[in-house]
UniProtKB/TrEMBL annotation:
CDD domains: TrHb1_N. The keyword DNA damage does not apply. InterPro entries: Globin-like_sf (IPR009050), Globin/Proto (IPR012292), Hemoglobin_trunc (IPR001486). GO terms for molecular function: heme binding; metal ion binding; oxygen binding. Keywords: Heme, Iron, Metal-binding, Transport. Heme binds at residue 95. This is Group 1 truncated hemoglobin. Pfam families: Bac_globin.
Length: 143
């Protein structure tokens, strides 16, 4: 298991903890990610990481990356308590038939972690965003 996958597994194991039980901490997370502009840069770097990763970039062949960047930015903004409403498809619908496995999932999350590191997002805030992605795992992997 890679270090990053291990880190994600640790987050998964802790996902029942009350990370963000109040609206205030939602807003804090949005701010810690650098608001709209910071999130857009994080998503951009994550997608560059994905594009350069031969383990997973075949999944993204032919995908409209500008649109994907816009939807991911909107989704993370929404999830972190920012002033956005995610307008894309459900995770189940958009990943249906893709055959995403555990390794693919951890690889993408690894690029997200690296992008957050690059933009100096504090580790507790990184973990809070990852914890909010955990419930999507079962809709994305194994379909
Ligand atoms: C935390 C994990 C993930 C999140 C939050 C996520 C989020 C999203 C979002 C918001 C979209 C846009 C939905 C739409 O088009 O309406 C999307 C599309 C897509 N995702 Fe993911 N995703 C995740 C993991 C993965 C993984 C692991 C892969 C493959 C390695 C993947 C491959 C794709 C592809 C190829 C599309 C474009 C689908 C299309 O345009 O038809 N995703 N994802």
């Amino acid at each position: 298991m890679t270090l990053l996958a291990g880190a994600f597994a640790a987050v998964t194991a802790c996902s029942s903890l009350p990370y963000a039980s109040s609206e205030a901490s939602h807003d804090d997370l949005y701010n810690a990610l650098g608001q709209q502009q910071g999130i857009a840069l994080i998503v951009e770097d994550m997608l560059y990481g994905v594009a350069g990763d031969a383990r997973i970039n075949h999944h993204f062949k032919g995908v409209d990356i500008v649109k994907l960047h816009q939807l991911l930015t909107e989704q993370f903004c929404d999830l972190s308590g920012g002033p956005c409403n995610y307008s894309g498809r459900s995770m189940a619908e958009s990943h249906q038939g893709m055959g995403v496995d555990e390794t693919d999932f951890n690889a993408l999350v690894g690029h997200l972690i690296l992008a957050m590191e690059k933009h100096d997002v504090p580790v507790p805030a990184q973990n809070r965003l990852l914890a909010r992605l955990v419930p999507m795992h079962s809709e994305i992997v194994g379909h």
